[in-house]
Amino acid sequence: MVASNPLFVGWSIRKFNATVVNDVWPEVLLFSGVATMVACVTKLTSHHLGISNVLLSVLGTVLGLVISFRTSSAYERYQEGRKMWTNIAIASRNIGQIIWVHVPHERKDMSTVESVVEKKSMMNLVQAFSVAVKHFLREEPGVYYQDLYPLICFLPRYATQVAPTTADMLPLWQASEDERFPLHTASAPGSSTQSLPTSFPSEKPKSKRRHHTFDPEEALASVQAHRPLLPARNPPETHFLDYFPILKVFPWLFSSCSRRVRATLMRKQNPKKKKGPLAESNVPLEITIYLSGYLAHLLRNGWLMPALATGLMNNISALQDTMSNLERIGSTPLPFAYQAHLRMSLWLYLFFLPFQVISTFGWLTIPGTAFASFLLLGFLEIGQEIENPFQYDLNDLDLDAFCRAIQRELHEIAAHTAPAPAEFVFSTWNQPLAPADRRSAAELVAAGGNDYTHADHGDSEPGMMSIRRVLLKNYVDVERLTRQMQ
Known about the structure:
Elements: H1 13-17, H2 21-44, H3 54-102, H4 112-137, H5 149-152, H6 171-174, H7 240-243, H8 249-269, H9 283-300, H10 306-331, H11 336-361, H12 365-385, H13 399-414, H14 441-447, H15 464-483
Pfam families: Bestrophin_2
InterPro entries: YneE/VCCN1/2-like
Membrane topology: Multi-pass membrane protein
């Protein structure tokens, strides 16, 4: 994602590619050519191609309002997508805190280490949810990715634990399987996944676009898989036609013709054979199911208070709601008829624009038409680009950064030791009654609770009365010190 004053701070090729110049220059060149033709014919010959500009102001105003609405609606989807990812971050933090702080470490028939491993594994599933949503929105199916597979590879793969077969594979793994790399069902006795890591090389294929010094997947577990893992970020490669989009019509025509030829040959060879639909699993939904199952496990064993269980369930539901909203944004484009009609109307307007302004502007019709084309077509392309902000475009949301932020926050929660307040409150570093009384908590406790006195109040009314006077003086001092600069 490119942001922060791209025109004036740190200009680079990457920031230039984030503009819409590459997308609109063929159309700008076309309409500038039309304007050049109109200006040359009118100025260099006896023919005058000018027409009345009565419709220019009316149609231009209406078209500008429609383009503005188009861009505003696209930006609204962009902002809503960002808000939804904020909701994922908030719910992930809440779930992580409830699991790590409120689920007890000491439990019956379970050691402290087992409890910590269980809780941290479930927090890894919370982290995996955001990563799975990222791949889901980018239309990258399956679970075999460098940033997702290490977080969920311990989940069960088969519905039965006794002599499992491929037909018993759960949807989470069934939809991700590849016949080139079959998953072996042989496993060690008692293995919940019914499939251990095989001898496939553990090297992670590096993404072609990631800088060699930045590899966030190194922070994840080193797990061998039975098939090569796809890179965490796999943007489409930039080709020659991306800079000359007008030439894309030729590959499209060639592929269309070749596809029809192949389809005809296939019908002749196998006239009755039809390809069945592929099974597809919603990976984020599967993860929330495991989180809900963990909540039910805690409730059955009495390891979580009902009020906290309600909060945990609400946050899991918030993850599911947010995923549905993100899917709605990503899979609901603007109607084709609206986009097609708007673009054709804009093309007609820009085509007839030189004919309407040639009488007034003369040779300036050429740069004027070029500027108008660049302005209007640019806004139209911006609206189309940010309409789905979850892909790899330079103006899209940085979903990888959002996932890494959630990862850091969950690890920060897990690093918290949740000590008893007595271990850190009554120390010499704490001055709870400042600014009126700057003695430390250890000194206040040593002075005694009911015998508390303060030098400004004397010893006539020790205890809580003196403490209340100190708190009141705190209020007065804070009001004075924090408002005196206003």
